[in-house]
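Q: I'm writing up a methods section and want to include an example of the input and output format. Could you take the sequence below and give the corresponding predicted structure tokens, formatted cleanly so I can copy it straight into the document?
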Amino acid sequence: MVRRRYHQLEITGVRLGVCACTLSLLVLFLLCPWSLEAEPDGYDLLLKATQALREGDLDRALHLYQQVPPPQEGQEGGAFVRSRMEAARIFFSRQEFESSASMCREVLEVFPDNLEAKNLLRQAEVSQIPQWLRFLKDMKTYLPTLLKASGMTLILVLITMIVSPTAGLFIALGRISRMKMLSAIFWFYIWIFRGTPLLLQLFFIYYGLPQLGLTLSPFTAAILGLGLNYSAYLAEIIRGAIESIDAGQMEAAKAIGMSYWQAMRRIIVPQTYKRLVPPVGNEFIALIKDTALVSTIAMVELMRAADQIFNATFNIFVLMQAAIIYLVLTSIFTVTFRKIEDRLGVYENR
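A: Here is the clean output for your methods example:
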């Protein structure tokens, strides 16, 4: 009897113990539900963040990206790296450069050799520099290259300034010649080169002539294209200046025994200088800017150099520096021609 009672008490104790344990686990579950939750899966969070990004909810996507835990020892960190880099790119696009840099640093703490994080971190740090300081830094870096290229621009301008007025004078004289055939030929020349874009002419000279058996270097093609185009414009300017001289000047020259060409050389043409300086000066100032077109035929001058640097760096300050150099060059030529005009007395009151 005693042994039976003892056995019953033992069974009852076991039951009470099991009930107490179950009750303890239930209380623990109710009071601390987090203790039974599994650690969030990185790829699951990454998937949810990507879905939020597709829906346009950037804030939720950023929150989810930042919830992806760093990898533990022995684990691969693909989800962590991708989530942090996606967050860094979003912050960068929103111009929150400090947050973008912070995401990159988290990646580099775990994976110090990650090139993507290094590059984006560098861009984010540079973007935090004040604009004026970035401009000065970029100027120090790229200005020597641009100045060297602007030397080629000046060479193109100076050679064209010699070739085009000389050719333009002969074309103008041929245009006003009494020989109808000669006048018609030069009229056709002027009509072609004034009526078609300079860019198209450069393309034809550099890319078209080789198909006809004549291959030119970029420099030769640039000089030829600029010279032919500007000689046509200057020919019309010179012709207008010559025809503005009183016809009695030619008659007087012939009366004292001068030939037509002597009268032109000694009497008529010298009187056109004052009238020619303003419009010719404007053409040469336009020429400085038109030299940028020769960059399309592989001619490395100022615009070509700036374009190459910009395509490699996407740095808009490079183009600003090129614009400043063009502005300085045109200003120098403007002041120079103004001095020449004043010297010749173009605007003197009479």
